[in-house]
């Protein structure tokens, strides 16, 4: 069982930055054996995956955030650096994990088993 807990959300103006963190823990958790990702869901919209990191550290992003968001992991934590934020980035952001030794491009296709409770990001124009 893996537990995930996000932090770092908040309200910013367009063009601003936020850094989300996700602390991972669990009896069997070994950060190197998981695909991990950041997902978001805006009101009235479907949840979408925005950034993924594979077991060996490679990354993949949805087109709408490429060049603005950076995903990284360090031992028991996952991060999402968000720069040049836009109002359309407003959403609840979740970190998620699934046991896998795939690279990031395949990680984005998986069904994620472990989820955090979410952290709200609001970007005003």
Write the layout of secondary structure elements.
Blueprint: E1 3-7, E2 10-13, E3 18-25, E4 34-41, E5 48-53, E6 59-61, E7 69-74, E8 77-82, E9 91-99, H1 104-107, E10 114-115, E11 119-124
Parallel strand pairs: 2-11
Antiparallel strand pairs: 1-3, 3-8, 4-5, 4-9, 5-6, 7-8, 9-10, 9-11
Distance, first to last CA:
40 Å
**What fraction, in percent, of the residue positions are helical?**
under 10%
Number of strands: 11
Shape: globular
Rg computed from alpha carbons, rounded to a whole number of angstroms: 13 Å
Poorly predicted segments: none
Structural class by SSE content: mainly beta
- Largest sheet, if any? 7 strands, mixed
Explained architecture:
Strands 2, 4, 5, 6, 9, 10 and 11 form a seven-stranded mixed beta sheet that branches. With 125 residues, this protein is mainly beta. The protein has one helix and eleven strands; from the N terminus they run βββββββββαββ.
Annotation keywords:
mainly beta, four-stranded antiparallel sheet, globular, 1 helix, 125 residues
State the gist of this model:
This protein is mainly beta. Helices cover 3% and strands 50% of the residues.
């Amino acid at each position: 069982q893996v537990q995930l807990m996000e932090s770092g959300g908040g309200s910013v103006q367009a063009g601003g930055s936020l850094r989300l963190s996700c602390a991972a823990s669990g009896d069997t958790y070994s950060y190197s054996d998981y695909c991990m990702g950041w997902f978001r869901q805006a009101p009235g919209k479907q949840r979408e995956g925005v950034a993924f990191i594979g077991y060996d550290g490679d990354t993949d992003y949805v087109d709408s955030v490429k060049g603005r968001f950076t995903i990284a992991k360090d031992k028991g934590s996952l991060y999402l650096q968000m720069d040049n934020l836009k109002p359309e980035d407003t959403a609840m952001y979740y970190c998620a994990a699934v046991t896998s030794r795939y690279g990031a491009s395949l990680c984005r296709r998986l069904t994620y088993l472990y989820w955090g409770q979410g952290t709200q990001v609001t970007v005003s124009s």
